[in-house]
């Protein structure tokens, strides 16, 4: 006998939308984490730091990484330590703030990021990007930007 579930109509739309965001984030993150770990020995948290570093033409202050990622500052610090031990990033004293360090990808870090990003895109395509059109993707981007902009409200 199949398990009975409530149809979405019996749930307030705001609750259904919230649950959908949580579900999608959890399922997609888990899928990407498994694919990156298997193909590159790279947890999704490490990939997130690489993604932000790869998107910046200049070294990034560690504090900015902490503010940009979904990781805590201590998690960012541990990820940077792990990435540095694998030769994927460098840490240098900041020229603007003597108390800060800046992080940049090494050539090996760029190579790994490119390969891992291809893996991420390939693993998401059948369950995300191939299912959504440009308008859907723009709408999702707008939604998360609104939510993120007001996260401290």
What is the secondary structure topology, with strand pairs?
Layout: H1 13-40, H2 44-54, E1 60-61, H3 62-68, H4 73-85, E2 89-93, E3 101-105, H5 107-124, H6 134-149
Antiparallel strand pairs: 1-3, 2-3
Describe what this molecule looks like in 3D.
The structure is a single chain. This protein is mostly helical and 153 residues long. The chain has a domain at 42-136: Arc Repressor Mutant, subunit A. 61% of the residues lie in helices and 8% in strands. It has helices spanning 13-40, 44-54, 62-68, 73-85, 107-124, 134-149; strands at 60-61, 89-93, 101-105. A three-stranded antiparallel sheet has the order 1-3-2. Helix 2 (44-54) crosses helix 5 (107-124) and helix 3 crosses helix 4 (73-85). The mean pLDDT is 91.
Would you identify the regions where 5 or more consecutive residues have pLDDT less than 50?
Answer: none
Q: Largest beta sheet: what is the strand line-up?
A: 1-3-2
Overall average residue pLDDT:
91
Largest sheet: 3 strands, antiparallel
What is the approximate shape? globular
In the CATH hierarchy, the third-tier topology of the domain at 42-136 is known as Arc Repressor Mutant, subunit A
CATH architecture of the domain at 42-136: Orthogonal Bundle
- What is the gyration radius calculated from CA atoms? 18 Å
Element pattern in H and E: HHEHHEEHH
**Class from helix and strand fractions:** mainly alpha
Protein name: MarR family transcriptional regulator
GO molecular function: DNA-binding transcription factor activity
Domain HTH marR-type: 14-149
InterPro entries: HTH_MarR-typ (IPR000835), MarR/SlyA-like (IPR039422), WH-like_DNA-bd_sf (IPR036388), WH_DNA-bd_sf (IPR036390)
